[in-house]
Amino acid sequence: MDTTEPRSGRSGGIAGLYRGLIRFIAGTMMTAIVAIMVAQVVARYVFGSSLIWAEELCRYILVWMTFLLLGLSYQKGEFVTLEMFPGALPVTMRRILRIVMALPVLVFLAIVIWTGWIYASRFDTQTTPALDFIWGSLFGHPLHLSIRWIYVSVSVGAALLFLHILVDLALRFRRLLRREPDRADVMGTSGEIA
Amino acid sequence: ATRTLRFAHAANEIHPGHIIATSFAESLEKLVPGAFDVQIFPNRQLGDDKQNLESVVAGALDMCNASGVQYPLVTGRPALDAYQLPFLIRDYDHFAKLALSDAAQKIHDDLEPAGLIGLATADIGRRHFLSVASAVKKTDQFAGLKTRIVPVPLHKAIWEAIGVSPVGLPYGEVYGALETKVIDALEINVSSMLGENLWEVGKHFTLTGHYPWHATTAMSKIVFDSFEPDLQAALREAGKQSVIATLDYAKQQDETGRGELQEKGVEIVELEDLDKVKEKVAPIVGQWSQKSPLIAEFVAAAEAS
Amino acid sequence: MGTFFAVFALLVATGVPIALVLGVAGTLYLFLSGNGAMAIMLPQRMMAGVDQFVLLTIPLFLLAGNLMNVGGITDRIVQFARAMVGHRRGGMSSVTVLSAGFFAGISGSATAEASALGSILIPAMNRQGMPSAYAAALVGISSIMGPIIPPSITMIIYGVLAGASIGQLFLAGVVPGMAIAGGLLAYASWRAHREGYPTTPRVAWSECIVATKRTLPALILPLIILVGIKGGIFTPTEAAAVAVAYALFIGLVYRDLTPTSIWNAMIATALVSASILFITSMASIVSFVLTLERAPQKIASMVLALTDNKYLILLILNLFLLLLGMFLEPISILILTMPILLKLAAIIQMDPVQFGTMAVLNVVIGMATPPVGILLFIVASISGQPLSAVIREAAPMIGICIIILMLVALVPAFSLFLPSALMAVN
Ligand code: NA
Ligand code: NA
């Protein structure tokens, strides 16, 4: 895996701001997970007292991190794809196939965005014990943050992925019309599994 | 026509948490033969307690049985905590009396605004204390023991009052954590000691009986409302019958299970100064009673019976 | 179920990312099976596929490996392996296998291993006169050790699905992992003698000692992990965070890491783990629909209707997993099949730790089998060789791994000896 990310695409404007923000949140969340889990080991093993909220909070961070990064991860070509068959097709066919096959994916993501929002809304009264415990020990009263703000990550992530695919599709469509060559960097076969 | 009811829970097939589902299905079949086909999904097949409960609230699943401790979390309605106030319910017989009382019915009814019809609450195994290094025989010995608890407000309050050092850990990692002594102790029931083979890694079992482990069967209100009144009555009656059947099973498993544990080399001890622990946690009953008049009423009913 | 598999195959073949294939086909199956009203559950299942404490090991073990890689540990491991076996005939091929074994001890993932080692070792073998396709195949197949020798993300996932002890699973992988190394070393020597690959002079003792010293911190990581878990200092999940802390520590001590390189590694790891966790998230939709349709029970009784012979069931299990491994990646295979296969494992009374070792080895071998073999993709792209040439070279090496898979399946002690000796109850 490369750790020095090549700067691809436009880096200015709203897109650049978005990428910068997501990357910053990603780094922060990753750092937070490491810090909380190491703190938990030290607290329990060295001081014999446990951070009772650690496990739950780490899970919430992981969930948000995963869904928030889907779009960017897709754009970077981290999604594993079998390119063998499309790769053997003539260029125009391949582009048309890509565009056609994006449709069921977009429909699926739309369903997820919609149901995700409804699902999150159903649990407005459910709170997050971990954050209540932290708040309680800091300020003497629970935070009462609704679990909705964790659950809504599914919708947000699906929406970002939806947008990324849509932009990708628009660019492909333009190249198809103008008969420009493909950019090689989108939807590669990298990705790190197991 | 036969209506299919999908019923999910997280317990394995020998656990009382499964009996509450099977006995419900059997009673229902006797009451209204052929009216329902209850499909039971045990063993976390469709999700853990919290997920199953959420699915029923969302109206996607017909019914579930989940730990009572999850209901206040998921629905924001605190009353089911009443069952686990420390040392309030004395034993299985006392539980049976209370679970079928008016005060209990009101707690079930209180779930309706959250979209749930409470049908049954049973004790699926009274909780005791398992320790790894040595037996806890005196209250002082709880001090500082790294004890895995469910990280919810009520349990945190109880175990901090007793003096242990509560640890939050996913249930799936408990066996390994006891084996390697990441944690020193666990509050647990006999059926889980046997079902999850915890006796292999913890050999000292103190009979504290601090609270029952109550599990509640709930049905989606939308689904319930779609049935005719006579079927609704049958569902409620089957719920009540499942409470009795489950308590019988749990009580018996608890008694024979202790013998089995002893045969497997587990030392079972009493707490010499149980009153001291009771004293430490006594204020919690009052604190929680203030959270809901339903809890206060349940406490009064428990103390009067 | 037939429609589901047809749609699945169509989507995979037309180049839709595997994660999205799982989601789209799973959702379609939900509607086709008359459970469309349960679409509201999709977000819950997607959450459930990620919202698990144990899955934190995925970003964390990746990050630990990543930090070590940025910190130059890969080079040091190769130096060390060269000092030990570099003088043999076709020495770089032996160095490759040995390096992969050591790297497996710090990495929980096979793909991390293939990309880190491939870029260094494929050109190095090539310079020593070995064909690039052979070099690529050797790196790819050696990377199978990554998730077999502890630590291992795949073992942890299995442990959680099966409720098996992760410490025991880690130990169970040690001997089979070393057996793979032994088998590949033997094959590499045989090839080197047959093809007459050149030898290089033995490295001086002083250089050996320097190389050992420089590599030692990385080599003791698996020991730290096993001792830490066994000693009750941390849980297997937390071990992943400890590995990160350790990688940061030695990186800072050796001044190989800078705040910028650490920060970049954090971001890159987060992006990669998002794509993996998206697969587990989507796989959880499919496994939900399969459970609703009672597929595990149906398939289990279908198998039992065929035979109740323990060895035949074992054979069916392995063929089934190898078949899935041709198309899917390890974690989603485990999520999809464990509800079914654990039932069968219980029926033939196989120990869950032995079964887990077998299943994990099986699905990891699938990473190196065509048509979808991520390890083959990686090494083919690094070496610039056509996939077909790499596959031809890889075939006998996959054969070696399958022999070891058979040993794991048929000889309980092969995997269970270490865990029962070191983590015996009482
Ligand atoms: Na490894
Ligand atoms: Na494959």
TrEMBL record, chain A:
Residue ranges of the TM segments: 21-47, 59-75, 96-120, 149-171
Cell compartment(s), UniProt: Cell inner membrane
Highest taxon of the lineage: Bacteria
Membrane topology category: Multi-pass membrane protein
GO cellular component: plasma membrane
BP terms from Gene Ontology: C4-dicarboxylate transport
Molecular function GO terms recorded: transmembrane transporter activity
Segments forming domain Tripartite ATP-independent periplasmic transporters DctQ component: 33-174
Chief place where the protein resides: membrane
Assembly, per entry: The complex comprises the extracytoplasmic solute receptor protein and the two transmembrane proteins.
Official protein name in the record: TRAP transporter small permease protein
From TrEMBL, chain C:
Protein name: TRAP transporter large permease protein
Role, per record: Part of the tripartite ATP-independent periplasmic (TRAP) transport system.
Family the entry assigns: Belongs to the TRAP transporter large permease family.
Keywords: Cell inner membrane, Cell membrane, Membrane, Transmembrane, Transmembrane helix, Transport
Entries under InterPro entries matching the protein: DctM, TRAP_DctM
Upper classification of the organism: Bacteria, Pseudomonadati, Pseudomonadota, Alphaproteobacteria, Hyphomicrobiales
Membrane topology value: Multi-pass membrane protein
Keyword GTP-binding: no
Membrane spanning residue stretches: 6-32, 53-74, 94-122, 134-160, 166-188, 216-233, 267-291, 311-338, 359-382, 394-418
Principal localisation: membrane
Record flagged with keyword Transport: yes
Subcellular location: Cell inner membrane
